[in-house]
Amino acid sequence: MPDILLISDQExxxxxxxxxxESWRVFLVALYSVLIWTEPWYPAPIIGTISTIxxxxxxxxxxxxxxxxxxxxxxxxxxxxVPRIATSISHPQQWTAAKEKTFExxxxxxxxxxxNICKQIAYLMDLKEKQPKMxxxxxxxxxxxxxxxxxxxxxxxxxxxxxxxIALYPGVKHNGVFKQILSVFLNRVTDGIRSYTxxxxxxxx
Length: 205
Description:
- By secondary structure, this protein is an all-alpha fold.
- The chain has helices spanning about 1-20, 25-35, 45-60, 65-90, 95-130, 130-150, 155-175, 175-205.
- One of its GO terms (cellular component) is membrane.
- It is a multi-pass membrane protein.
């Protein structure tokens, strides 16, 4: 019964999210196709765009307050312009069932990501209450490692790597890149073991 209620609540949240971001649906569907690499050359513009932004930021090197101000200004500008442009260039007749399905997948992914974040926070709060020593040691160790990494490695490089990984993750997951790499690795290991075994058997004969 709780699982049914949870699924029902999730479906309601997905429908509410669809209504809330409906003006963004054309842009989100187009962005989603890029992020999951529906074309094999899509990783190149993703990496190129992110690298260009970080190079420009490194070259300009604005103060923190200026950076935050420009970020929120740009976010506000995008939030104002993009839905209007998407509405003007997209007609209702062009919105197909396939696009609607993709939009629903996007909303479902957003809701599930929110749920996963809430679960992790709830887990940490539960750990803090039941095992405070473990909570303290884990948090202290993580913060120490993070501080050491930030002190020894250039912070812009760390941010570039993190943003790049986040942007490439949907495509990597959707196309099973990890599985392909693991499969190639296991095949190489298997071939190496087989060749080594064959050599030993020949020598023994």
